[in-house]
Design a protein that fits this description.
Largest sheet: 9 strands, antiparallel
Structural class: alpha+beta
Number of strands: 20
Distance between the termini: 120 Å
Radius of gyration: 31 Å
Helix content: 10-25%
Number of domains: 2
Order of helices and strands: HEEEEHEHEEEEEEEEEEHEHEEEEHH
Shape: elongated
């Protein structure tokens, strides 16, 4: 009899377990964690346009080139953008999870700076079939921001630092667009001074690969370190910003420095530097592009200094 009751009790016990499992499963208590809800429901590779707005009506527009992964700035004649920086921003936007919902009241938008006309950053993201607008506002805590999607009342706290998103076009341009491979340079000419690559059989030392020629005469007392430094500065020339209309009106007509670079394929590249009035800076033009450029601070002055013959020749003792 005891054995019979034990079988019945065990049967009831297992029945209770089955019922509990079924009940909890349907109630969701035994389900795994839900998929995280993302702030931006767009795939990174489907995004083709970006418009970034900030306080003071500062705006930067970026467009993805057709049939390419490269981005450009349409407001600057399609000037190439730093595509790597754009993709890093898209990574941040598409990988940001919705945090805690902190408000559903439109009256709070202004205070949290996620209103249509009051925000820290407004980003309009254009996809293949739709566009999304995100307002980023004040910071509820370190490295966080309030965020709201356009047309919605919910405001969330998200792990995002909108202040890191630059608002100047100069911060998005491809700054190494003029960089050339030093190994492709055959000669550099400044006035009556020419730096020319030695023939391969004459390069006994990796550092001794250039001749300095003045008025068609090879100088034997060239300062090799300074010559190599000058060639490197020319090859690695980076831009800081595109010259503005104001820059063009304030630039001196007198050319302060002219550099001619001949590559191994005999392509000739010209650079000219002109002083900007009431500034210590220069405006640079090149045969490679139609625009004029400012170089990073002191870069133009360094090139002017290094291009002087007395800088590239060792003093006689």
């Amino acid at each position: 009899m005891i054995v019979k009751y034990n079988k019945i009790l065990w049967a009831l016990f297992f029945a209770q377990i089955v019922i509990a499992v079924v009940t909890y499963s349907y109630s969701g208590l035994l389900r795994g964690p839900d998929e995280p809800q993302m702030l931006l429901a767009l795939k990174k590779m489907d995004i083709h346009t970006l418009q970034i707005e900030g306080p003071g009506e500062k705006t930067v527009s970026l467009t993805k080139a057709q049939n390419s992964e490269d981005w450009n700035l349409p407001d600057y004649g399609g000037f190439p953008a730093n595509s790597q920086a754009v993709m890093q921003l898209l990574d941040r936007l598409t990988n940001t999870e919705l945090g805690m919902q902190v408000s559903k009241q439109s009256e709070s938008f202004g205070r949290m700076r996620v209103a249509d006309d009051n925000f820290e950053r407004k980003i309009v993201i254009g996809g293949s079939d739709e566009a999304k607008t995100i307002f980023f506002g004040s910071a509820p805590s370190l490295r966080q921001a309030h965020a709201r999607l356009n047309g919605e009342n919910s405001v969330y706290a998200v792990k995002f630092a909108p202040g890191d998103i630059d608002l100047e076009a100069s911060d998005w341009i491809k700054k190494d667009i003029l960089v050339i491979d030093e190994n492709d340079i055959k000669s550099i000419k400044v006035g009556n001074l020419r730096i020319q690559r030695k023939a391969a059989e004459e390069q006994q030392d990796a550092n001794l690969k250039w001749d300095v020629v003045i008025n068609d005469k090879v100088i034997n007392k060239a300062d090799i370190d300074e010559v190599n430094n000058f060639v490197k500065q020319v090859a690695d020339m980076q831009i800081d910003s595109i010259g503005t209309t104001e820059d063009m009106t304030n630039v001196s007509r007198k050319i302060a420095l002219s550099i001619s670079v001949v590559l191994k394929n005999d392509e000739n590249i010209r650079y000219t530097f002109s002083k900007l009035k009431d500034e210590e800076d220069y405006l640079m033009s090149t045969s490679l592009r139609s625009e004029s450029f400012r170089l990073p601070p002191l870069s133009s002055q360094k090139l002017l200094e290094l291009s002087k013959a007395d800088k590239l020749i060792k003093e006689s003792k």
